[in-house]
Amino acid sequence: MDRRSALRRTGVLAGAAMAMPSLFSLLQACKQEPRLTWQPEFFSESEAKTVSTIVDMILPRTDTPGALDVKVDMFIDKVIAQTYGKDGQAHMRAELAAFNTTCEADFGAVFIHLDATKKREVLSAAEKTSGKLSRGVWGQAVGRQETIGFYRSLKSMAIWAYFTSEEIGENVLNYDPVPGVYEGCKPLSEVGNRWSL
Q: pTM here?
């Protein structure tokens, strides 16, 4: 090997070594960019990404499926598109825009462009400041219901969609499609306390 080719190889290796960290960070940034794999009926693409990210953080995958595994984000989109009136849809869109405006004011970017730590801070703050849902009987609130806002409304829909999904109802919760004999005095420890009807 002559001196000229040795210097050229050394220069290429040094350049690659210097460029590698920035290439790695570029790949990491691409990995963190949320991807939308479904076509929303109501939300815009960026709104759908925001909703998907929030519900994934509320109900992440653990040893049980997460919100995105059972398509909670798609369900919420369909519910808003097919059951909300024009005023309700406009209100949801305005609430989502206000949520992102707050994120930009407090953290410098919309929700989906924040890092994981800041996203958790945003949701933690929203959890503390949004109104609580009143206890209900047969679907009706008991007492005066305070204004719950975007975050609590979305969280409530996400939990509802999650626990009424077929996957969770049949494979995670206890499920008995044809109940047997009624045994009223059975200890809770024998049957467990999470059932899907």
A: 0.68
